[in-house]
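Q: Could you fold this chain for me?
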Amino acid sequence: MSSDEPSKARFAKIVATYEKELSQFLSHYMPNKADVEDCVQETLLNIWRQEQRGLLREDARGYLFTVALNVVRDFWRRDRVRHRKAHVELSEDLPEMRRMGMDKQVAEREGIRLIEASLEQLKPSTKAAFLLYHVENLTPDQIAVRLGVSARTVEREMARALEYFRSTLGGVVKDLLEE
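A: Sure. Below is the predicted structure, expressed as structure tokens.
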């Protein structure tokens, strides 16, 4: 048995004992499952490094969750710097909600949330035409008068918005925006 074997065995025991609890703990701080998994992996990597250095205390639970919180904070900091909120991720649960026949309103609310989050990516004129049509329920002619453009320009802006949403949000648009 090499000198590294006791460290590996101890680390494996820590992972087996705390990984699920750690994942549940982190899910309270992060809504995205993939981000939770990344933070769990980063936390466990930090714990492994401490174990390799011989610095990990006998009862590692408290330290494990402290490290996890620090990993989440670092993640949030990086997230802010990278402007990650500008990127809209599809909810992993949306297709499953449809398959399971969950309440249609829940799926619609999730779709609307995704559309609202991605509106910022549209040109101002496209965004304005889209909102006037879908929120204020104006006709293309009324939108043209309001924006001071032709009805054909409004139609092009609407087509541009729909194409953007189709390419980024897929099936959500079909159910919510297309008639």
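A (continued): The chain has a mean pLDDT of 76.
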